[in-house]
Design goal:
alpha/beta, Rossmann fold, 2 domains, 8-stranded mixed beta sheet, 15 helices, 34% helix, disordered N terminus
Length: 408
């Protein structure tokens, strides 16, 4: 008789850290999602977290002891080491500004921070805080340091916050966090190659909106899909990605820092403010070439606009200006043309002195889920077949990474 060898997948286990913040209430739903997938979770709560959600709640959902104290743990006296051993990942959600600061400093004076310091597994954090706290230079320095140390960032997202303000700092939904962990830790399709590991990549996406009055403006049909797909592909390739997005409703890619802007001027300011530490800039956004010279301070009535003469002023050419300000940045441009894409694309590439420009037919690209593009560089015109934008983004990131390394 032949012995049957079990092919059952190994058990999955997560150390689930919860730090203090109003978003801690979402931890209950996240725990429920993981338990439904038969993932074992060992919950570790900071003292501040226990003020927002009780350990009893997390114990009932996880079916396991909840860990709180570095000195009075349920089992081993070496839990700051032992608890992380054999875990597939440590996931901290929410990760407060205070916790990120402690993590960046290598603090180990509570159980959760000690576990993170002594880990042998991946660490993923889902930030949650007020917009100004997230944007504060101190927090951004901590985020940059943690990214360079290999910590995965899941969000934050933009939206309405508990404090009543709107902006960056909102924790991702439990469903998005669970999906991100699945893809980063367990999915066989996850991109393991780190062709851009440690590189700082800045990407613009979407349209801009140039106000005429408080309710009207000039814009275009860009959906932002290509730029968002490139941001996701660059993050999967190991880059530290900042995505500057115009007014679109695309979900923020995982492990990508998003900055929302409205006008061409806003986008230029956001790019130039972050250009110094950038290695690669990919200008995908359909930035307005012109903006109204004067913006009405009230909604223009119909009788005021029957014969409206709209005076326009040229906006800043972000690709050109970036080349002058920071010549070390490897700049990649996008061009959406309606005719003669090879001729007009090459003229634009040479005029802006770009090492690489990606060109496509505008009427076929805006709003679509797939695209057909060509790459223009010093070696000529390289056409790519039509494919889904998510697939195309991965191909383009590999092409960009290859040319960037050749430049170095």
């Amino acid at each position: 008789m032949m012995m049957q060898v079990s092919s059952a997948a190994p058990a999955k286990r997560i150390v689930f850290g919860i730090s203090g913040g109003i978003a801690a209430y979402k931890a209950a739903e996240l725990a429920r999602l993981w338990v439904k997938k038969a993932i074992t979770i060992d919950v570790v709560m900071t003292a501040a977290a226990c003020r927002f959600i009780t350990p009893l709640t997390m114990h009932a959902l996880s079916g396991r002891p909840v860990w709180q104290d570095l000195w009075h743990a349920p089992d081993s006296s070496m839990n700051h080491i032992a608890l992380s051993r054999g875990a597939d990942a440590i996931v901290v959600a929410p990760a407060s500004a205070n916790f990120l600061a402690r993590l960046a400093q290598g603090r180990a004076d509570d159980l959760l921070s000690a576990l993170c310091l002594a880990r042998e597994c991946p660490l993923l954090v889902a930030p949650a805080m007020n917009t100004q706290m997230w944007r504060n230079p101190a927090t951004q320095r901590n985020v940059s340091l943690l990214r360079s140390d290999g910590v995965f960032f899941l969000g934050p997202d933009s939206g309405e916050l508990a404090c009543g303000e709107t902006g960056e700092g909102r924790m991702l939904t439990p469903e998005n966090i669970a999906a991100a962990v699945e893809r980063i830790i367990w999915s066989p399709d996850h991109e393991k190659s780190a062709t851009l590991k440690g590189r700082n990549v800045l990407i613009t996406a979407g349209p801009t909106f140039e106000a005429i009055d408080p309710v009207r403006g000039l814009t275009n049909r860009s959906s932002g899909k290509m730029g968002f797909a490139l941001a996701e592909a660059a993050a999967l390739a190991g880059a530290n990605v900042t995505l500057i997005a115009g007014p679109v409703h695309q979900p923020t890619p995982l492990n990508v820092m998003r900055v929302n802007v409205i006008s061409a001027s806003d986008m230029a300011d956001a790019v130039f403010a972050r250009a110094k530490g950038t290695d690669i800039f990919i200008g995908v956004a359909a930035v307005a070439d012109y903006t109204p010279t004067h913006v009405a301070d009230h909604k223009l009535k119909k009788n005021e606009i029957n014969h409206l003469d709209l005076a326009l002023t040229a906006t800043v050419d972000i690709l050109d200006e970036l080349g002058r300000r920071t010549p070390h940045v490897f700049r990649v441009g996008f061009a959406a043309e309606t005719q003669n894409i090879r001729q007009f694309g090459e003229e634009k590439r040479r005029r802006k002195q770009l090492p690489m420009l990606i060109v496509n037919q505008a009427q076929e690209a805006f709003g679509a889920d797939d695209n057909e593009v060509a790459i223009l560089d010093d070696h000529g015109f390289h056409a790519l077949p039509r494919m889904a934008k998510t697939t195309l983004a991965k191909c383009l990131i590999q092409e960009i990474a290859q040319r960037f390394e050749q430049k170095d």
